[in-house]
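Render this sequence as a predicted structure.
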Amino acid sequence: MSGCPDTKSGQPRVPGVRYKKVTRYRTETTTIDGQSETRQVAYPAWDPVPPRDLDDLVLRAVTGTAIGVTALSVAGTTASVGGLLGHLVPSPVAYSVALVFDAVWLACLGVEWLERLDPQRAAPARRAGWVALLVSMGAVVSYGVTLHQPVAGGAGAAVGLLAKGLWWLVLRHYAVPLSPGVAHWLSSKQEKAIARRVVAQRMRRLDREDAYLRAAFPETAGAASAITTTQAPLPLAAPDMSAPVSGQQSAPGEGGELVSPPLPPHPSAGAAVPPPPPPPSEDEADGGPEGEPASEAPLAGGGPALRPVGPPSIAGTIRAVLAEHPSITDTALIEHVRKAHGDSPKHTETVPRTRRRIERKRAS
């Protein structure tokens, strides 16, 4: 099929190259009265056929042989170990357990294949596979000894050794040694890819737990979110004891140097210290019960009473809206608070909670 060009397709043919006939398609347009239609027209062509790769054929043959020998080894080991264990357990159980002896070293072989480019990671799987094979061979030899056929038992055990040896050669062919630079580059890329995958899995798990907590326990989740998002107060600076007290001036002493006035005496241990005033209740802090303004707090020493200055609190706004519209929805109430006090992500949690507290106090 090589030599001169093809007379039908006009495709040139290179001498000495094998060709195979294939069907290709080209577009053909037909125009009638200014209207065009396009269709696909098939035509024969010849594609060059690459030469046979003998290396690939040999590798395929070796791999197929290894698979066949392994299957025969598994069958022989399962029959021998199943017969050995049949004296202790029922036959179905004995032959099922016998599969473990070859399944273990085959699994180690699979791990060794996955780590074939990293000799250090592949070494443990290789050693474990040889140990599992020795255990399997010992079980087969023991079965031959029980039948007074030690030579037959040794021959049966050698089948597994041959299968393992073939796989060792095949893996050695595929395990191309890498230079230190290439190995480091590959390890770094693999480490980053695994790190991204692990972080993504951990974030999905945390998001799933957070979503479940918010759906099942909304109040607890809201309280926990408020606690974790609250900023810690700034530490107070220690007072400077060497500076003079505010409102006092240093007086000149003998020799012209300034002398600070003495500090007020510390109350003695026996003196009664007045207890601190109790903290204001939630109603007083929010503007008084039932929406009334907070009471004026008199100053110590009979001074004029203090009146809070500034816009009404959020609780006062909620009380005022509830007084006019008792059946208002939580969404509309949150919108009123946002218009009066500005937008805040905490309104969706604090406004409904404050509303429930005000309604409970009114009901009682």
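Summary. Strands lie at 19-32, 35-48, 251-252, 258-259. The first strand starts at residue 19 and ends at 32.
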